Amino acid sequence: MLARALRKPVPDTEPAGASMPEPAAGPKRCGFVAIVGKPNVGKSTLLNALVGQKISITSRKAQTTRHRITGVRTVGATQFVFVDTPGFQTRHGNALNRSLNKAVLGAVSDVDVIVFVVEAGHFNLADAKVLALLPAGIPVILVANKLDMVHRRGELAPWLRSMQERHPFAEYVPMSAKNAKDIQRFYAIVEKYLPEQDWMYDPDELTDRSERFMAAEMVREKLFRLTGDELPYTSTVVIDRFEEEGKLRRIAATIVVERESHKGMVIGEKGEKLKRIGTEARQELEKLWDGKVFLELWVKVRSGWADDEARVRSFGYE
Question: Which of 12, 84, 218, 293 could form a disulfide linkage to 47, CB 3.0–4.6 angstroms apart?
Fold first, then answer.
């Protein structure tokens, strides 16, 4: 059941690829598209470009995405239901990472097509471990992302030939998630793998995630962006209160860290870092919801929470 799902944004706020011309109507198609790959290959950026609105948070810190995020986009007669996944975790075997890996495996087990995202021209052991997890019998499209970062396009040809030897990919798509034409081309490629059937969502819905969830994610994004690599990725955000009064939303949230020293990093000198996290998150949420937001933030220490199965579940992880 959708919980106050996000709706299509107005055209002048849409990112690249969002305002593409709608193709001619035909038989209705609808299906699930899993977006998978190792951490930090651009999965969330790709999802946001495909949906036409920011619904999945991004930062340079690995393991930013921790939940399966469902993004919906209806183009002409076809409804694409995209599932963004956490990057598969191979370094640490704590309860949090086991939860993240479970989300990845769950996402790819029952979809119509899998989009395997790698950086164009690169493939390492972490990529190989994700590729080895993909189930047989489901078509896999290789997306060579961040094409805009490749300076010599001619070098991609031998790399693509080497990728053909690694897996029987259904399609090979060099692209940049920031390029509107690439996004438009991507829809046409994926469409033929989706079954002819009725849509699952209203045509203007963009995600099945609730506003409460989006609030926690937006705070977590600003937390990671503003603390950089100083703060361990195990920090998380819990919504304590979410109230609506018309177009006004009152939100109280707690940033959970594992050590007292981490708490100091988040609060900053005279509380300036925490204030900036709150301000930037509030501004992003007001833009997202087109309404006023009052946001209160607190910081608490919960030692060892990322390796406590019960606490990981209580913080909303699967």
Answer: 84
